[in-house]
Amino acid sequence: MDKKLLLCAVMLLGVCGCSELPPVLPAHADEPGKLHTRNNAASLLADLLKDEQNVGKVFIVKNASPEVMDLVKLIGATAATHERELLLMATNDPALNLDEIELPAGEMAARDGTTKSKEHDLLFSSGANFEFNLLFSQAQAENYGWHLAAVAADNSTNSDEARTFATIGETMKRLYDQVVEQMRALPAH
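Above: the chain sequence. Below: its structure as C-alpha cells.
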C-alpha cells in the first residue's frame, strides 16, 4: 500500500512539475539590460564604421604623404569589412538592432559641433598640420570604436557574436596604435 501511495505521489509531482516549466524565452530575453547596451554600442559602432569608410575621400581635395594616405585607406577598407560583419550578424540575429543610437539631445548637438570643427580643421590646414589633424581625428575614431566593440562584446550573450565584436575591437586597437605611431613620425613644426 505504501508503494502505491509513493508511486502516485511521484507521478503527481511529475505532472505538476511539467505544468510549471518556464516558457522557452529568446536567447536575450533573460537580460534586457545587456541586450539594450549591446544594441546601443553596436549601433554607435555601425554609425562610426559608415563614417570611417568615407574619410579617404578627403584626398580628392587634399594631399598627404603616401604613408598617411595608405593608412587612412586601410582604415576605410577595414571599416567597410567590419560594417558588413555587423550587418550579417544583424541578419542572423533579429534581436541585434543597429538603429538604437539613442543619444541625448545635448550629446547629439555636441557631436554635430565636433564634426563641423574637425571638417574645418581638415579643410583649412595643409602639409604637416593637415596630416596631424587627419591622424588625430582617426586616432579618436579608432579609440572610440575599439571601446564600443568591447562594450558590445561584453554585453553579447551569443559567444560567436561576442568573438566578432572582440575581433573588431582588437582590429580597431591595432589601427589606433598604427595611427599614433604615424603621428609620432610626423615632422615637428
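The chain has one domain: 30-100+112-185.
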